[in-house]
Amino acid sequence: MTLTEQLDKLLMKVEKPARYIGGELHSVNKDLNNVKTRFGFAFPDTYEIGMSYLGLQIIYHILNNTDSVFCERIFAPGIDMEGLMREENLPLFTLETKTPAKEMDILGFTLQYELSFTNIINMLDLAGIPFKSKDRSESDPIIAAGGPCAFNPEPLADIVDFFMLGDGEEVLKKVCEIHQSWKARNGNKREFLEEVCQLKGIYVPAFYEPIYNENGVLQAIEKKYEKAPDKIEKNIIEDLDTVDFPNSNVVPLIEVVHDRAVVEIFRGCTRGCRFCQAGMIYRPVRERSQDRIIDIAKNQIASTGYEEMSILSLSTSDYSKIEPLVTDLMGMCKQNNVSLSLPSLRLDSFSFNVLEQIQGYKKTGLTFAPEAGTQRLRDVINKCITDKDIYSGMEQAISLGWTSVKLYFMVGLPTETYEDLDGIAEIAKNIMDIAYRMNGNKRGRFNVTVSVSNFVPKAHTPFQWCAQDTMESFEEKHRYLREKLRKIKGVNFNYHGTETSHMEAVFARGDRHVCETLIKAWSLGCKFDGWREHFKYDKWLQAFKETGIDDNSYAFKAGNPEDILPWDHIDCGVSKEFLISEWNKANHCEQTQDCRRGCVGCGINTHTECKQEGTL
Amino acid sequence: MSRYVLQFYKQGYMKYISHLDLLRLFKRSFKRMEIKLQHSQGFNPHPKMSFVQPLSLGYTSVSEYLEFETNEYEEPNHIIQKLNEAMPDGIGIAACRAIPPSKKTLAAMVEYASYELKFKTNHICDWNEKLEEFLQQDKIIILKKQKKSKNLVEQDIKPMIRDIILKDSIVDNNIITLTTTISAGSNFNLNPENLMKSFCTFLDIPFEKEAISIERKELYCSTSEGNGLVPILKIEFKN
Ligand code: SF4
């Protein structure tokens, strides 16, 4: 039986079989005779999640625009499908041609969240590829990885042959070029890796070795290949207008999480929130021009038939010409009968005006992220929102007839006390008071949802030296908040699971030792750890125990700025001095201004130009 | 306002997309072609477009029908050509016909569907004889789950079977191919799987859903006189 015949048999039995069939509008097929590099883009989660991720569409588009490269998609099969695949010995395959993943030249995983790491191992297993680089043969694919979690690549260092740091658009093409000449001269893998590590932003972990002392303290990161760079600098696309962007996205045949046209309007963020990894690793801010954005949006709508479009960036309102851009987009969408959705707008009068127009009668879905309950703690984390901002925004919302708002906070932030938690409850209460004041007795049915996530210290942020709260402490805080908020009518409360936050902390600051735990946990049945229904904390604890890893020493570790960190050889462009000074300022509750008001010296401008510096 | 009926096929992997997915696909395809569909009135307007008879997930078909209304008249050939440019492999438009507006939907006019059923079996018998015996029973009783109460009730499906034929009497590689015409639509509707299940029970052989492949061949309504059948595409409209 061929793979396709086998597949056909399985598809009759699984949930959402169309996850596995490919064939969507704008998916690509190529004559394999002309293809020299077969690239498998592997997303370590289900089809519905992977297809909602813009990065996939960008890479797919860019690679397939190169004639000699064929990029095909591979997703993690659902649990039911996986079971059948194992029963029938059906290997992991690509959607486009149903080719076994093992036959790809390069298999590239995207690392969006730490809790997807076990899925990578599971996918390699389903593909019949040995997990560790050292166990793979010359005929196995080269395993690559990129995405935000590649900035602390060490937990996957034994698995991945090379990582790509920063913007992938240009370097991926170069990697494929090198692959083709290397393949033509029949080189071995070592030669390939020696060559690609010369490219900017390419990290080959096998060329480095962390050295620990007898107490298990990291002493140095030694180079094993002389010509490998001392520090691996991320790639930066200087001008987004010069790189290709998908005009015709692959349009899923089944419903996915985000099923709409989408244009990235800028990369990076100038605000400098101290807990935020994205705010550091994507610096500096680079904007796509308004003309290009409108152009791409029009093309996408025309080529896909989508009825909804959205824009993407870290903090939408910070686009330098946000008002003309949004006005233009609204006009264009209206003309094309497309609904526009605008995420993470700052709640000012312009935004409300826009929301009035695009949402019409539908006044739900307002969100706001003060992150911390008191001004003091907001100063610590450098979240520059004042009480006044919050309440004036809410007054406007309520006067315009909005009936609900969702507020996002974090607990477990450095220096946090119960006063800061009281602050969260106070904000919720004050907002309800505004609703009573403006809408009378029934508060206009207005309600507030307080959504709390648990702080996870991340690499390359000023809080990378900070210990995470213990699980008991998180739970105590959740309980405390729940009690406080329960007493306020119209307020709902929800919070994230502490166990998954704990795991995230272990891997976000993990070193090479935790790789064994990952593999162990997988062998005990852990996968889809980001899915509440699949997360198995007891198995994780067992895996830590059996591999001799103390999870707490990773999560609760409070470091010193002098320490050598497992990711010190990875250079995201923001200097360690800056992170240290930010960490010190945090401890003194001092804010750092948004660098659109003037450079604050993060160091990225030694690598590239900061166009938004001092523009406010 | 113009009204059309579109005939299309659904083959290969496309049998795995549900009819809601297919509806969305058509909606987007019309949007891409800049053909404006007529919308229903009301609070939550939706385009006037519906399948004449939804096809179950996992079945292929050579003749499915979509009924829709546009704001302005479009040349049917133009619709076929443009839609085919946008369709994924496995879905293709075979015909498009402008039809007179009416309050009665085509879905309300369907009476029969024909299917080809292929299944693998080691069972050896004279299939024609068995089919005849099967059909000559006084009643053909199946157990059917009631929609609301979920209780199983007996149902006689005999009146809903117009014919079952062993196709070309070829018994090849243990694969048996039958064609059948059975009731479909809002009045009487027989699921071909239930028919197969009942036939297997009659033969005392196991019924395995995954081992049967089902393809819809045509949808029919009755001719105005006699009890002949006419494919939906050729339906006659009286003025
Ligand atoms: S170098 Fe200065 S202007 Fe550029 S991102 Fe860093 S702080 Fe902002």
Describe this structure in words.
The complex is a heterodimer of chains A (616) and B (239). The model of chain A has no long low-confidence stretch (mean pLDDT 94). Chain A contains 20 helices and 19 strands. Chain A has a 6-stranded mixed β-sheet with strand order 2-1-3-4-5-6, covered by helices on one side. In chain A, strands 15-16-17-18 form a 4-stranded parallel β-sheet, covered by helices on one side. A 3-stranded parallel β-sheet of chain A has the order 10-13-14, covered by helices on one side. Chain A has a domain at 3-208: 3-Layer(aba) Sandwich (Rossmann fold). Chain A is an alpha/beta fold. With 239 residues, chain B is α+β, with helices and mostly antiparallel strands. Chain B has helices at residues 19-32, 76-86, 127-135, 192-203; strands spanning 2-10, 49-51, 60-70, 91-99, 112-120, 141-145, 152-156, 161-172, 175-183, 212-222, 229-231. In chain B, strands 1, 2, 3, 4, 5, 8, 9, 10 and 11 form a 9-stranded mixed β-sheet that branches. A two-stranded antiparallel ribbon of chain B has the order 6-7. In chain B, strand 10 and strand 11 form a beta hairpin. The two termini of chain B are 18 Å apart. The model of chain B has no long low-confidence stretch (mean pLDDT 90). At the A-B interface, helix 9 of A face helix 1 of B. The structure holds iron/sulfur cluster (SF4). Iron/sulfur cluster (SF4) binds next to loops of chain A.
